[in-house]
Amino acid sequence: MSDMEEKFPRALWVRLIIYIAVGHLFAAFIYLLFAVGAK
């Protein structure tokens, strides 16, 4: 039980960090597309 309780939050944090990182990269990519397209 203790092993499960320790692994779950770590996997959740890793997934959350990856999701946020990918979201920021995707937003930056779209921002660059609009910035280049506006010129």
Per-chain topology:
Layout: H1 2-38
List keywords for this structure.
39 residues, 95% helix, mainly alpha
Describe the structure.
- It is built from one helix and no strands.
- The chain is an all-alpha fold.
- Helix content is 95%, strand content 0%.
- The chain crosses the membrane at residues 12-34.
Quick recap:
95% of the residues lie in helices and 0% in strands.
Order of helices and strands: H
Number of strands: 0
From the spread of the alpha carbons, the general shape counts as rod-shaped
Largest sheet: none
- Tell me the distance between the termini: 58 Å
Which secondary-structure class do the elements indicate? mainly alpha
Q: What is the radius of gyration?
A: 17 Å
The amount of helix comes to over 70%
Amount of beta strand: under 5%
Uncertain ranges: none
Average predicted confidence as pLDDT:
88
Helical region count?
Answer: 1
Keywords: Membrane, Transmembrane, Transmembrane helix
InterPro entries: DUF6126
Transmembrane segments: 12-34
Pfam families: DUF6126
